[in-house]
Amino acid sequence: MTEVLHGDGVRFWPVTDVGRVRDHNEDAFLVDRKLSLFMVADGMGGHAAGEVASHLAVKTVRERLARDRDVLVAFEQGNVSRTEVLRLLESAVQQACAAVHQAGVQDEARRGMGTTLEVLLLVGSRGFIAHVGDSRIYLVRQGHVHQLTEDHSLVNELLRRGRLTREQIEKVQYKNAVTRAVGVYESVEVDTLDFDVLPGDRFLLCTDGLHGYLEEGDIPRLLESCPEEQVAQRLVDLANERGGKDNISVVYVRVPDAEAGYDKLTRELNLKLEVMHRMPLFRYLTFQELVRVLNIVGVRSYGVGEPVVREGEEGDELFIVLRGQVRVHSGDTILTRLAAGQHFGEMALVDKAPRSASVTADEPSQLLVIRRRDFFDVIRRDHTVAVKLLWSLCNVLTERLRTTSRDLERARERLSMSGDVTAELLGEIEELTDASAEPAVADARPTDPGSAGS
């Protein structure tokens, strides 16, 4: 095991071990100090083919990123978007996939070989991930452990579909089977993710030879109980103590703490995540999924009396109050006031109907903004997130419908309790409009709660 101190203060400790059962190591890891690039790969194919696949994959990705390093420099300087970096990362993995596949085609003994691949690239204060297979990347942030990748495995697919419970995993015949791998075919579907990197963040890249033995609480307990320079080796030892049936590879990465402690970026990001997590629309999202949604969220500031939306105008944005307070009003009539954590405009994510009310800042305010186009782009890209978001949106709109129905029922009750005067007044209105305006009168009458959704 070696410790490396990057020029920006990033420290990392890579370890790989053959385990207690296998006679050779098909895992590979690669660290490039200049690129702040970290990778682990778990090869498959037997007869040393897996070892060839894993080493060729990490080598190809590293060479591609080094060749196009100008894109990374341009991103750090603000001259290209994060999307360009993600495209470069995915292209590098696809190039590795083609290289491994071609090597298998050229050598009959290695045909069908493949590898998992985890790539973590740190550029400035931004992290980029590319993921294929069932190796993993964990983020440890402020005492909490978040799995940033989702296993491309038979077991995980069965769990997602409800065909398997966690208690039944040990009984699955092909529980180590992966559903995606680099090199088995000429191309592969690559999961990518980008996110803010905060001072003090720690990352753990590992193959299933480690995470297959991890129990809940193992990672935070180890981080608390042993020096950082021993964490990676201690994790490998733990996997061996619990069986060591596979090769074990770990790359442990530590981003330095902020010089002034809790910095502004950390406060801002935590506030955004906290406010969004409280919203019913995002209640079912995992940390990884919430980070993915956070990438489409903009922030706007408004001064006192400044309009946010105007009644009657078309809108395509959902707003979430991050700081301050706004009032919702129709003309001079104030309907309600909204403070931090509250939201408005979710119907704009569904259609282009005119705004039913105006919203104006009561005090200096910051609002998170999600556009309809970006919202549906996330839904198109990720089926699981789509199901969760659309289900939550249905729940939000259903609750709005129920609230409207209750309000209409109360209005009917108040009209009924007002007695003969109301009855006489309604009778006069009906007489005046009986002939020519019957449909309009019908629309003006109190709506039956059972038809409130029409």
Descriptive report:
The protein has a six-stranded antiparallel beta sheet. It has three domains: 4-261, Phosphatase 2c, domain 1; 265-381, Jelly Rolls; 385-451. It has 13 helices and 20 strands. The termini are far apart. Helix 1 (49-67) packs antiparallel against helix 3 (82-106). The radius of gyration is 28 Å and the shape is elongated. With 454 residues, the protein is α+β, with helices and mostly antiparallel strands.
Q: Summarize the main sheet.
A: 6 strands, antiparallel
Mean pLDDT: 87
CATH topology of the largest domain: Phosphatase 2c, domain 1
The backbone outline, from C-alpha atoms, is elongated
How many H/I helices? Answer: 13
Overview features:
disordered N terminus; alpha+beta; disordered C terminus; Jelly Rolls; 3 domains; 24% strand; Phosphatase 2c, domain 1; 454 residues; 13 helices
Give a quick summary of the entry.
The protein has 13 helices and 20 strands. The chain has helices spanning 49-67, 69-76, 82-106, 154-160, 208-211, 218-225, 228-241, 264-278, 287-294, 372-381, 383-417, 420-433, 438-444; strands spanning 4-5, 11-17, 27-32, 37-44, 114-115, 117-123, 126-132, 136-141, 144-147, 191-196, 202-206, 248-254, 298-302, 307-309, 317-323, 325-330, 333-339, 343-344, 358-361, 365-371.
